[in-house]
Amino acid sequence: MTTASSASSHPVHVPDGEVPADVYLPASGTGPGIVLFQEIFGVTDYIRGRAGDLADLGYVVLVPHVYWRVGDEVVSEAADGLPRAMELLGKVDWEAAVSDGVAALSALRDHPAVDGPVGLLGFCFGGGLAFNVAAVAATAGAGPDALVSYYGSALPTLLGLAPQVDAPSLHHFGLDDDYIPVDTVREIEAAVTATNDDVTFVTHEGAGHAFDNPSPVFHHAGASQEAWAATTAWLAAKLPV
């Protein structure tokens, strides 16, 4: 995973203020766009690194700071940081976060560096948020061109929105996830594939929740590598540079 250090600020205007957001540009300076949504720990070095990885692939990447209304705090990804992360998550106004995400999608489409389609990608909290944003934006006729959701933690409560998500989508889940049991993973799979013929659903044996996060608390090296290879190949097909 790349350690991305060069990003520019690109606040997203919303009715009650500005969502802080960072833009990562590819070497070419232009390309298709991806809005990248954070985990519950905030916009950490891990999320910035993945933004850099996507930029290295040729995408213009926008990373909104979803926690801006509750302090935009970055929390340790070690085990002792999880209670604080859950506390912050509990303060998030979900509907406002979805609205911010829709605004971020629109803002990225309007960014002068974006040349081509625009997709969404999210991890954990961000995976569920990306799914909800895709549904709401599609209802307004401005849905994303692609959606990637890694172990979207809110998905079990969002399955009623599945018929609204009409973009090609890729979902990753671990089969040893303490937060999303296998039976629930299969319910998610059934719901997201019921009304969309262009869904790729990948499960990873032995992988727990947040398996792509490099923290030793979560990381599963094999699943992380396998999922990222699948993601980059899928993006190349569905959101070509």
Automatic annotation (TrEMBL):
Residues 23-237 form the Dienelactone hydrolase domain. SUPFAM superfamilies: alpha/beta-Hydrolases. InterPro entries: AB_hydrolase_fold, Dienelactn_hydro, Dienelactone_hydrolase-like. Pfam families: DLH. One of its GO terms (molecular function) is hydrolase activity. Gene3D superfamilies: alpha/beta hydrolase (3.40.50.1820). PANTHER family: ALPHA_BETA-HYDROLASES SUPERFAMILY PROTEIN, CARBOXYMETHYLENEBUTENOLIDASE-RELATED. This is Carboxymethylenebutenolidase. It comes from Pedococcus dokdonensis.
